[in-house]
Design brief:
alpha/beta; six-stranded mixed sheet; elongated
């Protein structure tokens, strides 16, 4: 496996006492702003860096001790998170603090919902922390290409999640629900602060 020259350069700068990047990066993967809003709140609270999900820039995670990935939950799977884990070794993620947050319309406190999302995102490393954050939906802002996919999801919701969670998601979708809340990030912030001593 090729060496990561970015990581080698970072170690050299640390040893020389030079200023280095913040210890934490947030990767936000979403289309409609909820994931980006959570990333902005984390930047404000932790003084960390953030990037929008992109295959071209995802390798930057190798420069940080802590990686927080925030992705939209679609069909009980966290969008694009599998790309990160497929490159786990290439990005040098071994031994790093990894936190994965899924943003969706289900109840973050519902264990069945949580387990289904974790199962569908089955490539999550065992040692990572996992949170579900409340999301939002405004159907009038869905892109034209996303509308048929979202409508299909609503038809399949009961099969994917079970009746209780499906009914909640359907109700929230019909009401243009907005549940995003900075307080939902408190446990994530506490985990990162604990790594700083």
């Amino acid at each position: 496996m090729a060496r990561n020259t970015n990581r080698t350069a970072m170690r050299r700068r640390e040893e020389a006492g030079e200023v280095v990047r913040p210890d934490t990066i947030v990767v936000a993967s979403g289309k409609y702003g909820s994931c980006t809003q959570y990333a902005k709140w984390l930047i404000s609270s932790l003084g960390c860096d953030a990037i929008e999900y992109s295959r071209q820039t995802l390798g930057y995670v190798s420069l940080y001790h802590n990686v927080i990935y925030i992705g939209a939950i679609r069909d009980a799977e966290i969008s694009n998170v599998n790309i990160m884990w497929q490159n786990y070794g290439n990005f040098g993620l071994e031994g790093r603090k990894i936190i994965v947050c899924g943003v969706g319309l289900g109840d973050p406190e519902n264990n069945d919902y949580r387990e289904k999302v974790m199962k569908r995102s089955s490539s999550l490393p065992e040692h990572c922390s996992f949170y579900i954050l409340p999301g939002k939906i405004d159907r009038s802002k869905l892109r034209r290409l996303d509308k048929p996919q979202f409508d299909k999801f609503l038809l399949d919701a009961e099969r994917i999640y079970g009746m209780e969670t499906a009914q909640l998601i359907l109700r929230r979708a019909s009401e243009d629900y907005n549940g995003i809340d900075s307080k939902a990030l408190d446990p994530v912030i506490e985990e990162i602060l604990a790594t700083r001593g």
